[in-house]
Amino acid sequence: MRWLEERRLLKALPTRGLKLHLGSGTIRLAGWVNIDLETPQADLHRDITKALPFPSGSAAYIYHEHVMEHITVDEAMIGLRDWRRLLEPGGVLRIATPDLDYLVERFGGDWKDQEWLRLPEYAFIETRAEMMNVAFRWWGHQYLYNFEELERRMAETGFEDVVRCELGRSAHSALTGLETRPDSMLIVEGVRR
Hints:
Blueprint: H1 2-12, E1 18-22, E2 33-36, E3 44-45, E4 59-65, H2 73-86, E5 87-97, H3 100-108, H4 128-137, H5 147-156, E6 160-165, E7 186-191
Parallel strand pairs: 1-2, 1-4, 2-3, 4-5
Antiparallel strand pairs: 5-7, 6-7
Helix pairs in contact: 3-4
C-alpha cells in the first residue's frame, strides 16, 4: 500500500522548485519531500545513493544532515552526481556532517570537550584513541570528511561556489535553521550552475 501512496505523491509533486530532504530519518521538514530508506516518517522510501525518481532540474534545494558519513565514497560520488542532476540551475545542495578536522583537533587537545561525549551512553570512553575509533567506526560510519575533502568531491561532481557555512545559517532562507544536531560541525553548500 505504501508504494501506491508514494506513486500518488510523485504524480502530485510539481516539476520545479522542489525541496528534497535526503536521509530524513525521523525528522520531517515542513514543505520538503522527506526521503529515507526505512523510517515511517518519510514521504518517500528510497536509497538516496541510487537515482531518485524526480525529473532533472526539478529541485531548488537539497538538504541532508548526518548522511554523508554513512555512505562509502563511491556511493557519495554517485549520490552527488544525481543530486546535482536534480537541482535546477542555481539550485543549492546543503550538507551537514561531522567534521574530521574537528575530531583531529579534539584528539590533539581536550578530547573530552565534545557535545556527544557528554551523553551518558558514551561515559565508557576512557582515551582519545577510543574516542577517535568510536567516531570513525560506530553508527554505521563509512567515511568522515573535512572541508577540503568534501569540497573536492563536490567540485569533481560539478558543484560550483562550494562554501562552508555556520550551523543554522545560510545565504538562502530556505536553508536556514535546518540543523537539528549540534555535532553537525561541517556544513557545506554548493551550487549547480
